[in-house]
Amino acid sequence: MQTVSQLHPVFLFSHRCNSNRLLIMGEVKSMNSSKFAGRFDLTGESLCHKFLGDHARLFVIPNTQDGHPSFSISEEATSTPTNVWDHEIHPFLNKWACPRYLWRGLSPFILAGQVITRILTGKVHWKNTLQQLERVGPKSAGVCLLTAAFVGMAFTIQFVREFTRLGLTRSVGGVLALAFSRELSPVITAIVVAGRMGSAYAAELGTMQVSEQTDSLRVLGADPVDYLVTPRVIASFIALPLLTLMCFTVGLASSALLADGVYGISINIILDSAHRALRSWDIISAMIKSQVFGAIISIASCSWGITTLGGAKGVGESTTSAVVISLVGIFVADFALSYIFFQGAGDSLKSL
Prior knowledge:
Layout: E1 8-15, E2 18-30, E3 38-43, E4 46-51, E5 56-62, E6 69-75, H1 91-95, H2 100-121, H3 126-136, H4 138-166, H5 172-210, H6 213-219, H7 224-262, H8 267-277, H9 280-306, H10 311-341
Parallel strand pairs: 1-4, 2-6
Antiparallel strand pairs: 1-2, 3-4, 5-6
Helix pairs in contact: 2-7, 2-9, 3-4, 3-7, 4-5, 4-7, 5-7, 5-8, 5-9, 5-10, 7-9, 9-10
């Protein structure tokens, strides 16, 4: 072992990958001078050594001769070859970074794949799932039902007013039932949940991301996708069909009450017309739409939340973007599903 010693009042230690400096009095000893690549610059009262290798270790041991600390710097015995993708060799590839709009736009699809994988492999945190199910279901039912009731009464005013002129009062219930089951109930429920829970998901996960709480979960051995995202997706996927069915019932009931109380059309006529017009597929299609809408809301909101940057301002922007993207996704998915489910000429009103 060869030793390089230089006593100075101040020793300046610097590394290529770390800007930390050590100011101390002592000696420098290199364990293997044949592999030691470096440069010593003596400037005034300081000794500056810059390491050109990455696999080095610094040991501090007392010097029994003069009482000063002794620094031993050794390289790893099993040092790896120089990485061919080092930024000094390929500066273009090192400086290139994926644009934020690109990786943020792809994040919902990547997150959806991860969630599906977790569900299929059984990696589900059921306690968190039940908590999120309570938030999406019972705690969101009030505003959903209230919205459905007033939308139902507003549509009743328009339908009854026009159908009465044509003498088709017995068809009002069937038209309202078809409109509610196929379009209004799933879309209205999804919009309310997107505004209430989608914004909450994005704000919660965005705050956790900027405050590094998600990193703390990884340090503790918990995957944020398993612990935070998957329970929210499952809860939305289960709760929205139930909310849609409740909104359909309340909307049709409010329409029947308004038609009977204001326009003199019997509730029995409305309900009988709805019974003859509805098919089982109308209710099933509404449930399928609601499940798709729930998945869109939860995945879009969670993906925008966990990709938040920039502190409080970033959280606000992510929350707004999550709601907007969720609403756009709901309308696009509604058109696509309606086009698939209801092709050709319908015959639901023939029996009225």
